[in-house]
């Protein structure tokens, strides 16, 4: 797929088939992700690739986290939270390294990892996969971060849910850049 076609057709696809994503494709997406720019070449991205039964473990941690944050929720709400990790055959959680040197800025590490996420999403599109970048309360929760092997004060920038689209992706038509752009010459 040509680059501009991938950029313009990329869209969040949450309705995914349960079929597993071949390892070769997972590695292609990760290889694309790490081509992102990053200041001081610190490569601040951390990818945690979750599939199979590990999704059930993640769902359990997400439900525990939800229950701890909202103690009065009914069991059905916890069950719903638990099932969220099963919405895709593959989840790539993306963490951000904390700055290791005084000159490295947290915001720049976040920007670099966001660029890596976009590369990953574009690669998924080019490979015929559907993907959706998700965050929510789980992405802020220290229990979820701990399960992923991240530190509590490390950013978990997203959980990218990936699989084959359940239906044919539709053409997208987003507003243009004009209202967000000032020209100076
Ligand atoms: C940092 C970030 C966090 C997001 N978190 C969620 C989320 O928790 N749930 C969700 O449904 N979509 C989430 N999204 C996806 C956006 O809702 C989606 O990109 C937006 O609706 C535009 O649709 P598009 O991706 O098809 O262009 C997130 C996107 C970004 C960049």
Note down, in words, how this protein is organized.
The chain is α+β, with helices and mostly antiparallel strands and 185 residues long. The protein has a single domain (16-166), classed as NADH Oxidase (3-Layer(aba) Sandwich). Helices cover 38% and strands 15% of the residues. It has 6 helices and 4 strands. It has a 4-stranded antiparallel beta sheet with strand order 1-2-4-3. It is globular and about 60 Å long. The two termini are 35 Å apart.
CATH superfamily: NADH Oxidase
Strand order of the largest sheet: 1-2-4-3
Low-confidence stretches: none
- Overall shape: it is globular
CATH topology: NADH Oxidase
Q: What CATH architecture would you give? A: 3-Layer(aba) Sandwich
Order of helices and strands: HHEHHEHEHE
How many structurally independent domains? 1
| Rg, alpha carbons | 18 Å
Give the CA-CA distance, first to last residue. Answer: 35 Å
Name the CATH class: Alpha Beta
């Amino acid at each position: 797929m040509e680059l501009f076609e991938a950029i313009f057709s990329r869209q969040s696809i949450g309705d995914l088939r349960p079929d597993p994503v071949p390892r070769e494709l997972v590695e292609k997406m990760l290889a694309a992700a790490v081509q992102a720019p990053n200041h001081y070449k610190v490569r601040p991205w951390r990818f945690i690739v979750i599939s199979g039964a590990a999704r059930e473990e993640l769902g359990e941690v997400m439900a525990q986290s939800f229950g701890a944050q909202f103690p009065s929720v009914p069991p059905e709400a916890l069950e719903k939270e638990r099932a969220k990790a099963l919405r895709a055959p593959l989840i790539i959680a993306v963490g951000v390294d904390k700055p290791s040197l005084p000159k490295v800025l947290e915001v720049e590490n976040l920007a670099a990892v966001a660029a890596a996420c976009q590369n990953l999403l574009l690669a998924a599109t080019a490979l015929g996969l559907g993907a959706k970048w998700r965050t929510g309360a789980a992405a802020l929760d220290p229990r979820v971060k701990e399960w992923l092997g991240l530190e509590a004060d490390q950013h978990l920038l997203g959980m990218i849910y990936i699989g084959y689209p359940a239906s044919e992706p539709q053409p997208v038509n987003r507003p243009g850049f004009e209202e967000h752009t000032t020209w100076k010459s």
